[in-house]
Amino acid sequence: MKRIVMYISLLLITSAMVMAQTKTGSTLPSFSIESGDGKQIVSSDLSGKLTVLFYETKDNKELNRPVKNRLNDLFTSLGGNEKKEIIRLSVIDCSGAFWPFIGIWKKQLVENSKIEGMDVYGDWNGNMKKTFAFDDNEVYTVIIDQQSTICFFEKGQLNQSKIDQAVNILLSQLHRNE
How far apart are CA 89 and CA 17, in angstroms? Predict the structure, then answer.
């Protein structure tokens, strides 16, 4: 019995350590998300692309508004080939959605996609939140480089200095292969 408890404790400690390692410099963890209209993305789809990820809840998504606006302006100013190198992912924690309201949530994601000018995805089972070790009711801004390494990982609403830092990281990563 002691051995079983010891193995379970070791497994829990190892899991906590793996989840806690999601930070700047770490490798992109595995995840799967789905948009309101059924488009799916898995972490391997991001390989070779520069990715900006916004993780939020339906109640706090406006906290990411300043950084989204700035990065959308930057995206709009880029040329066609540069735009093809960037994936913008807005992800809402939908793990609290349940039948019969899932259809309403999906419809709202589709409507938000039109407003945001990018597809909005749902973390329907909470696995993305778990693997990234995102806290409940927090917003996150994450930049992932073309080699699937996290090069920017910030929790909470970004101040102007952090927004500038995110833009500079994006630009430096974008022009890295020139």
Answer: 26
Beta bridge partners of 153: 142
The per-residue b/e assignment along 29-47, b for 16 or more CB within 10 angstroms, e otherwise, is bebbbbbbeeeebebeebe
The per-residue pLDDT for 174 is 86
Burial (0-12, 13-18, 19+ Cβ within 10 Å), 146: middle
> Which residues fall within 8 angstroms of residue 34, CB to CB, at 6 or more apart?
40, 41, 121, 122, 124
Helix (DSSP H) and strand (DSSP E) numbers for the chain? 6, 7
Tokens of 75: 């995206």
Distances (CA, A) of 39 to 26, 42, 69, 109, 120: 27, 10, 24, 11, 10
Q: What is the pLDDT of residues 30-62, one digit of tens each?
A: 999 999 999 999 999 999 999 999 999 989 989
pTM: 0.86
Q: Are 143 and 166 in contact (CB under 8 A)?
A: yes
Tokens of 92: 């809402």
Do the bridges between strand 120-123 and strand 86-93 make them parallel or antiparallel, or are there none, so unpaired?
parallel
Q: Give pLDDT tens digits for 76-132.
A: 999 888 999 999 999 999 999 998 999 999 999 999 999 888 999 999 999 999 999
